[in-house]
Structure formats: structure tokens, C-alpha cells
Write a sequence for this structure.
């Protein structure tokens, strides 16, 4: 990260995003681990703080992005398919950042499960950030040209390096755990990068494993409240397969494979237009 241009506004925005969501997670972890408060920060307060931090991040991104790019959603696979949703983009952006943050948090339930998909998403978006910030490559791939996003590669390189170092100690049996400090901050940063590079839809594809984990929780809660029945034996999804008899290592490795497939599909979508 020290190699990055710390005058680059996108890098500074991402550092703020990482620190703000990391602080929310740290306070939650502190209350749970040190103060023996099993609930930590209340769900409502945590969501409020996430929305507050996410809103600031989105405002800063809009403020530092060229006006003709703001409030627009660029769709992969379709040439020149751009949707301008105006002020509603702020709500959309919050769904991306807060959703990504909580999705990584939900996935972080088994040793090594969350960090490898995080690394894969970071690798994919390092490529996307580079080509989006290069006028020649972005024109060739028919992507939105976002000036100065190349520096995001350095930020993501730091994330990847830290992730690999963390995986060394988080591999089963884990000696170090991500906690909310890591999962909320990493997820939010990836969501913010999706917004900065105008690849929010591609982020959902590349982060497909996180999306599936989140959907399993949403479906489980909705089904139980509406019908009194559970769709899965347990949610998030990785616990469902544990209940079905899969070993922890089997779940983790197979979910890694799924994450690799999603990353490749996301990359392929850049060329298929």
C-alpha cells in the first residue's frame, strides 16, 4: 500500500472505507471477545453505522468522478447498455457496499472459507481497475474509462498480499480469525471498488459465492417467517452442507472451486459484448 500514490483520491476513499467499516467490526469484536457480550453491537446500530459510512464513501466517489459517469449502471454482455438511475444510485450504491460487507461476514464461518474468494475477487478487480484506467484497453474492451483507477491495483495488491499472509494462519486448524474487523472492512472495500470502476454488476458475478451465502440466509429467514418451515437445514449455505454430512475441508475446497468459476465468468463477461 505504501507504493500507492497516496494523493490519489480513489486510494484515499478506499482507505477511509476500509478503516470505517473495520472500526465498526472492531468494536463489535471487542464487545464480544473482551467484554463477553455475545450480541456485540446491536443489529440496528451496526446497520446504521454501515449505511452512514457507505453514504460517505458514495458521496466521495461521486464528488471525485467525472460528471458524465455518475449515477450510471453499466451492464456486462450488452454493448452500450447503460442505465442512468439518477439520485437512486445512492441507494443502489449502499446496497452494493453494505451488501458486500455483510456477505463476506456471513461467509466467514469456516477456516479459510472467506479469504480465498476475497483474494479471487481482488485479483479480478485488480485487472478491471487497470484496464478501466487505461484509455486504450478500456476502449478495446468497450468499458467505461475511469481516470486514475490504475492506482487501485496497488491497493488490491496489498489486500491480496495481506490475504495470503492471513490464509497461512487461517488454514485449518486456524490460529488466527478474520472476525467482523476483517470481513466487514474487506467486503465494503470490494463493494466500493465495484462502484468506483463502474462494474457493480460484474462484482455481483465475481462475488457469486458471497451472493449465494447471503441469499441462503434471506431465503431461510423469509421462508421461516412466512411458512414456519426452513428451506435449508441451516444457514448460511456452508452450514447446510455441513449438516448434510460434508466435512469442513470438503465444504471449503468445493466452495473455493465455485468462487474460481464465478471469477472466470466475471472476467469472460468483459469480452463478451
Amino acid at each position: 500500500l505504501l507504493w500507492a500514490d497516496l494523493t490519489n483520491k480513489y486510494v484515499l476513499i478506499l482507505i477511509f472505507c476500509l478503516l470505517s467499516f473495520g472500526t465498526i467490526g472492531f468494536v463489535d469484536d471487542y464487545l464480544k471477545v473482551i467484554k463477553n457480550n455475545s450480541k456485540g453491537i446491536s443489529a440496528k446500530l451496526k446497520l446504521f453505522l454501515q449505511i452512514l459510512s457507505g453514504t460517505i464513501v458514495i458521496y466521495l466517489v461521486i464528488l471525485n468522478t467525472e460528471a458524465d459517469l455518475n449515477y450510471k449502471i453499466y451492464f456486462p454482455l450488452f454493448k452500450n447498455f447503460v442505465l442512468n438511475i439518477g439520485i437512486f444510485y445512492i441507494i443502489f450504491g449502499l446496497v452494493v457496499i453494505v451488501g458486500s460487507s455483510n456477505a463476506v461476514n456471513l461467509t466467514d464461518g469456516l477456516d479459510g472459507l472467506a479469504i480465498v474468494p476475497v483474494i479471487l475477487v481482488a485479483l479480478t478487480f485488480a485487472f478491471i481497475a487497470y484496464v478501466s484506467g487505461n484509455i486504450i484497453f478500456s476502449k478495446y474492451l468497450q468499458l467505461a474509462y475511469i481516470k486514475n483507477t490504475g492506482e487501485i491495483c496497488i491497493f488490491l495488491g496489498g489486500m491480496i498480499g495481506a490475504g495470503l499472509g492471513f490464509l497461512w494462519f487461517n488454514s485449518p486448524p486456524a490460529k488466527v480469525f478474520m472476525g467482523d474487523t476483517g470481513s466487514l472492512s474487506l467486503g465494503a472495500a470490494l463493494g466500493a471498488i465495484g462502484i468506483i470502476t463502474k462494474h457493480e454488476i460484474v462484482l455481483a458475478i465475481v462475488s457469486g459465492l458471497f451472493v449465494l451465502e447471503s441469499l441462503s440466509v434471506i431465503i431461510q429467514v423469509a421462508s421461516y417467517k412466512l411458512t414456519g418451515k426452513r428451506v435449508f437445514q441451516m444457514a448460511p449455505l456452508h452450514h447446510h452442507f455441513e449438516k448434510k454430512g460434508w466435512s469442513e475441508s470438503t465444504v471449503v475446497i468445493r466452495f473455493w472451486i465455485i468462487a474460481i468459476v464465478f471469477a472466470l465468468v466475471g472476467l469472460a463477461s468483459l469480452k463478451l459484448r
Remarks:
- The chain has one domain: 9-201.
- The first helix runs from residue 9 to 33.
- The first strand starts at residue 72 and ends at 74.
